[in-house]
Amino acid sequence: MGVSDVADSYVPIEISPNPMADYATVNTKATVTKVEFYSMSGGLALSQSGRTITSVDVRTLAAGNYVAVLTLQDGTQYSRKVIKK
């Protein structure tokens, strides 16, 4: 895989708002089929999967820092750092 292959395969993904309160919105043109939130210690805190995920209810998450792992329809995964207030 060359540098141009990586650049061509990049998909812009944003989770907003950040910090999150009640809901997190997934902003992307790609189809997200799974979103997982991991605590900074690596434990799975929340998982949601479905045909197309555009919003996640994060009210059950405790306040703190998390890593959101988003899985696309083709299996590609992206991670984003997020804060739950």
In short:
By secondary structure, this protein is mainly beta. It is 8% helix and 49% strand. It has a single domain (3-84), classed as Immunoglobulin-like.
What do you see in this structure?
This protein is globular. It has one domain: Sandwich (Immunoglobulin-like). The strands form two sheets. A four-stranded antiparallel sheet has the order 4-3-6-7, with no helix packed on it. A three-stranded antiparallel sheet has the order 1-2-5, with no helix packed on it. With 85 residues, it is mostly beta strands. It has one helix and seven strands, in the order H-E-E-E-E-E-E-E. The relative contact order is 0.27.
Would you spell out the secondary-structure blueprint of this structure?
Elements: H1 3-9, E1 14-16, E2 23-27, E3 32-39, E4 44-49, E5 55-57, E6 64-72, E7 77-84
Antiparallel strand pairs: 1-2, 2-5, 3-4, 3-6, 6-7
